[in-house]
Design the sequence.
């Protein structure tokens, strides 16, 4: 899988977008994760290889006050998987995610993302780790005084793209997530679903190989949630690993993907093609 | 380059946080104004003290009975002090010269014509390189046989000592005050910028989330600090210039007081140089202020 030529300079073949794309063929060129074609991005620090995208080995996270976020978690998320992380509030979902983007460090345990051991990752490399991971949050985390286009542009500027490239790519990706005609709106002028689309566009614009969404539909109505999940699924079909932490039982049941259930910091269930509850029907949330 | 983008980001943030930017600018203005008023005042006082200490000289009076060889050996002693750097200059003032100088000073010199002989002794006027050296000179020649027994050595002992103390005090007080002022200015600007960053903590979080390096986040804030510092400094310099032209120059031209004469304008800093120093200080204050403050917020 990594025997393709490493040209050093990725080719961004982008689609010409007229409308919101309806087919995966249109999405594909935009979202193709580089790991699938053996090419590496400039600034891409993930080690190419067939290993899992995320691996936790005996990970415990004890906070300063003594509270346990995670307790001895070991699991693997393979490249290209779509995984739901479920569990009640305080079960450790956020801790799990924050460990992956190195907002937290395991105490003790080993977290390996894209072949990188995060315990030994130098602090100065953390920004590069985060560029390789797209993040989407329940509260969108958009910069409030910037328009939709500027919010997406910021992620490109951070990675050192030229103004010319920013002007070219921002409209394309915003069109892809279905925000035509709303490029110059400020976040407060957009609906919740639209804001979440901006935040997904921002997460995707740097071609991440791993997309993490923490309660992406938490603030959205069911219909809007479906649209967002659909978007995440299509992104996953292009090869991007997607990890979604959620409470949204309906969505999880409908999509029948791998489900990892956490409770009090432990993995209580890890099942392929599952729903929100286990077979006994016991309610976790 | 990226600089253009950082600059745009800084301007955007100044606009978005107008109140805080104004506060930072006013802080810089006050700090630079005080600094700008203090530096020339301090230098003026110091130049006045220097002018006084420069006047400290030692008069070594020669007895009328002293032989030529005794006078010559005294002169050699003083010349020796000159070669080792204690003394700047030795001037011989003969009895005739002394009388002539006295005549010039008196309003009615005719009184001297009544004298049967010249009562004034000859002397060596010795200028020390440093006022402190007066003591060394006195110690070296105080037992010389050529010394006039009545006049001996004359020098403004207490004046010199007081001036020296004053000069040292002014110097140290000046350095300490400037240091405190600069520190206060840095802390004030830093605090103001902290407000600005605190207001945008979420924003900084988002920037880190999308993988901005610390310097990428820091540059716009630093530029913002520098802009506030520069604008504050420029306004402060304009105010100082107004005061200089309107008040100080007018007063110096009109007044004939001892103060304006002792401390010469040449001893203080030239205004264009002061201007550059102050504007530079303003920019530096802004940069250091934001730099220090940002360190806390950028810990991963």
Sequence:
């Amino acid at each position: 899988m990594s025997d393709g030529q490493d040209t050093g300079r990725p080719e961004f073949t982008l689609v010409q977008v007229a409308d919101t794309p309806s087919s995966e063929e249109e999405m594909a060129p935009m979202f193709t994760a580089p790991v699938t074609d053996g090419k590496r991005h400039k600034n891409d620090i993930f080690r190419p290889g067939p290993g899992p995208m995320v691996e936790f080995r005996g990970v415990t996270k004890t906070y300063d006050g003594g509270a346990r976020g995670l307790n001895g978690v070991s699991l693997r998320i393979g490249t290209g998987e779509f995984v739901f992380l479920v569990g009640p509030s305080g079960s450790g979902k956020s801790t799990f995610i924050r460990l992956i983007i190195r907002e937290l460090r395991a105490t003790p345990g080993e977290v390996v993302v894209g072949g990188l051991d995060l315990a030994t990752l130098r602090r100065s490399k953390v920004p590069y780790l985060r560029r390789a991971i797209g993040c989407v949050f329940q509260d969108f985390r958009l910069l409030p005084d910037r328009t939709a286009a500027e919010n997406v542009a910021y992620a490109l500027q951070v990675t050192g793209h030229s103004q010319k490239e920013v002007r070219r790519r921002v409209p394309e990706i915003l069109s892809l997530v279905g925000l035509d005609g709303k490029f110059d709106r400020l976040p407060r002028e957009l609906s919740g679903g639209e804001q979440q689309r901006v935040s997904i566009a921002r997460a995707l614009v740097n071609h991440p190989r791993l997309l993490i969404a923490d309660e992406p539909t938490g603030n959205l109505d069911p219909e809007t949630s479906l649209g967002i999940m659909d978007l995440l699924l299509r992104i996953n079909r292009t090869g991007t690993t997607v990890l979604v932490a959620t409470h949204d039982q309906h969505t999880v049941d409908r999509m029948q993907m791998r489900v990892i259930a956490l409770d009090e910091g432990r993995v209580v269930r890890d099942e392929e093609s599952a729903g929100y509850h286990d077979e006994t029907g016991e309610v976790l949330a | 380059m990226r600089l253009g983008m950082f600059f745009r980001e800084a301007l955007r943030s100044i606009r978005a946080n107008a109140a805080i930017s104004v506060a930072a600018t006013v802080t810089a203005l006050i700090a630079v104004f005080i600094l700008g008023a203090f530096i020339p005042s301090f230098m003026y006082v110091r130049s006045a003290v220097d002018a006084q200490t420069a006047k400290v000289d030692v008069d070594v009076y020669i007895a009328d009975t002293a032989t030529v060889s005794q006078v010559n050996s005294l002169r050699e002693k003083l010349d020796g002090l000159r070669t080792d750097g204690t003394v700047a200059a030795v001037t011989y003032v003969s009895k005739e010269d002394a009388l002539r100088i006295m005549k010039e000073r008196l309003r009615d010199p005719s009184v001297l014509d009544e004298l049967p002989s010249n009562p004034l002794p000859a002397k060596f006027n010795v200028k020390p390189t440093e006022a402190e050296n007066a003591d060394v000179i006195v110690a070296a020649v105080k037992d010389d046989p050529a010394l006039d027994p009545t006049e001996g050595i004359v020098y403004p002992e207490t004046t010199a000592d007081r001036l020296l103390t004053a000069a040292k005090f002014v110097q140290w007080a000046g350095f300490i005050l400037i240091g405190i002022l600069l520190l206060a200015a840095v802390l004030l600007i830093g605090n103001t910028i902290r407000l600005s960053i605190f207001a945008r903590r979420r924003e900084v979080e988002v920037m880190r989330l999308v993988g901005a390096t610390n310097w990428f986040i820091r540059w716009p804030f630093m530029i913002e600090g520098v802009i506030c510092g520069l604008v504050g400094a420029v306004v402060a310099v304009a105010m100082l210039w107004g005061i200089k032209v309107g008040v100080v120059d007018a007063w110096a031209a009109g007044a004939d007081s001892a103060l304006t004469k002792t401390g010469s304008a040449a001893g203080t800093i030239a205004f264009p140089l002061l201007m550059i120093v102050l504007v530079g200080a303003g920019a530096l204050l802004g940069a250091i202020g934001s730099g220090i403050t940002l360190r806390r917020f950028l810990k991963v």
